[in-house]
Amino acid sequence: MDCNEARALLDADVDRELSAPDALRVQQHVDGCDACRRDRARIVTLVQAVRQADYHRAPDALRASILASLPAAGDGRARGQSRAEPEPERRSQPRPRGRRWFSWLGGGVSARPAPAGPGPRVAALPGLGWGVALMVALAAAAGMALSARHADTDRTVDELVASHVRADLSARAIDVISTDRHTVKPWFNGRLDYAPPVEDLAASGFALVGGRLDYVGRRRVAVLVYRYRQHVIDVYVRPAGEGPAAPYATVSQGYALDRWDAAGMTWWAVTDAEPSALAAFRTALDARLAGTRSE
Q1: Where are the alpha helices (DSSP H) in 56-127?
Q2: Whose CA is closest to 225, among 174, 295, 186, 262?
Q3: CA dihedral sign, ordered 25, 30, 33, 35
Q4: Continuous segment of H or E residues that includes residue 233
Q5: Global pTM value
Q6: How buried is 127 (Cβ within 10 angstroms: 0-12 exposed, 13-18 middle, 19+ buried)?
Q7: What angle do CA 237, 221, 23 make, to 5 degrees?
Q8: What are the angstrom distances between the C-alpha of 210 and each of 1, 183, 256, 267, 282?
Q9: For residue 256, which of 238, 237, 282 has the smallest C-alpha distance?
């Protein structure tokens, strides 16, 4: 294990997220490398500082404000019905016995007529409060899930930019140097639990120059390295998750990133070139992968 691979695993090693074989390899490297040992010590110090930081509890006023903003549960009172109606008179009306589940959802109108008296006759809507509360809860859950997905994406973007910059600063940005995809692709055999597609796009202006391993999203991933003019494009390839990932493009810290799914893989491309270069790269790669599958 070299310093480039070890440093990519130090965070996971400190958090005890590595498998036993990987943890042993990292420990053996750190024991003999002063630079990596200092990096690991800094990470340990940071983790300990975070764990020892003061815990700040949300004030009671905030909790009370949130609870006060929630809709009240249904109390069986008809919306629009006169509040001046005497309680005994309301209770004297027989309640319908059928389809109570529909009324509970607030979706049906009761067959019970409005009591006689002055003013307009309004049909009762029992259980509407529960229906509103249910819709609010579902909307809140959907919002939390969306926020979690955005947080995951932001975290991945930060990891990829850090990996790209770290590789650019390292003396070993490429583990296997070759323009031949038949050399690069077999190099990953035995180093990953999947086989990443490797394509040479030199005819489209994106020359394959090699590949390497990195650690992103708490797992090892294949990185294909391409050159576009004077720029390097790092392409991170891993098996696609459940369901297709929506195409996503952004610019972070001056680096352009693009994500998409193709050939059963999720692809992330990172470069310091203009975003239009990644769009052209993606088009060329998708066309090549489609042509390979049709052959």
Answers
A1: 60-69, 87-91, 100-104
A2: 174
A3: positive
A4: strand 231-239
A5: 0.51
A6: buried
A7: 175
A8: 19, 9, 20, 16, 18
A9: 282
Pairing of strands 265-271, 255-262: antiparallel
**Contact status, residue 189 vs residue 225, Cβ threshold 8 Å:** no
- Phi first, then psi, for residue 21 (nearest 5°) are -65, -45
Within 13 Å, how many C-alpha atoms sit on residue 39's CB side?
Answer: 19
Which two three-digit tokens encode residue 123?
């049909």
Structure tokens, 65 = 């404000």
Query: Would you give per-residue pLDDT tens digits along the chain (295 residues)?
Result: 888 888 888 888 888 777 888 888 888 898 899 888 888 888 888 877 777 766 667 778 887 888 888 876 554 444 444 444 444 444 445 554 444 443 444 444 444 444 555 554 444 444 445 555 556 556 555 555 445 455 677 788 889 999 988 888 876 678 999 999 999 999 999 999 999 999 999 999 999 999 999 998 888 999 999 999 999 999 999 999 855 567 889 998 889 999 999 999 999 999 999 999 999 999 999 999 988 654 5
User: What are the boundaries of each domain within the chain?
Assistant: 1-50, 153-294
Q: For residue 17, what are its two tokens?
A: 């997220």
